[in-house]
Amino acid sequence: MRVAIAGAGAVGRSIAGELLENGHEILLIDKAPTAISVERVPRAEWLLADACEITSLDEAALQRCNVVIAATGDDKVNLVVSLLAKTEYGVPRVVSRVNNPKNEWLFNESWGVDVAVSTPRLMSALVEEAVSVGDLVRLLRFSHGDANLVELTLPEESALAGTQVGDVQWPQDTSLVTIIRGTRVLTPTREDSLEAGDELLFVAAQAREEQLEDLLSVRRTDTVR
């Protein structure tokens, strides 16, 4: 998979390194000569250019990319890069960094953003996830379909403890994607039983989050069919 990353700072280079380790083809773009540090990510392609300029993106052959990541420290730049990648080059997947949480509302499909990653919100969510049991924690927002990646640690008092996944009447527009149990990461099947202390990861429509939290956290008698 070919991935272009706009912004070759610490964040961009870190993402590039991880993706290279996973076998992807990486192009780093930055307009600052001081940011071009080929020796730090030697296996990546590098381009000294302004990612907000069409001529630069033409040179980068953005139409060949499967994913574009706008990872600069400037939200205005990230929005412009996202919009150009999606509308001018038809990039299938655009991921954008949100630096200021006040700007999150802009990072949506209208600006070409498929996935918005807010570092402050993510750090806050991880803190909540580390200390919360029974509370739904929003980890990541997906622009398409108004869906979020959410996590909840199943409390001991939950009626679902000991219930098989296939017997739970999950809310509409929610999907259980992973169960983290101790050091194990499980892909849930209908026969798997939920256990108190399980970290459950869902992709869920925002409108269903409260219903999902109630189902998982509150002891009730109508949770299974």
TrEMBL record:
The keyword Transport applies. Pfam families: TrkA_C (PF02080), TrkA_N (PF02254). It comes from the Bacteria. One of its GO terms (biological process) is monoatomic ion transmembrane transport. Residues 137-218 form the RCK C-terminal domain. InterPro entries: K_uptake_TrkA, NAD(P)-bd_dom_sf, RCK_C, RCK_C_sf, RCK_N, Trk_Ktr_HKT_K-transport. Keywords: Ion channel, Ion transport, NAD, Potassium, Potassium transport, Transport. PROSITE patterns: RCK_C, RCK_N. Residues 1-117 form the RCK N-terminal domain. This is Trk system potassium uptake protein TrkA.
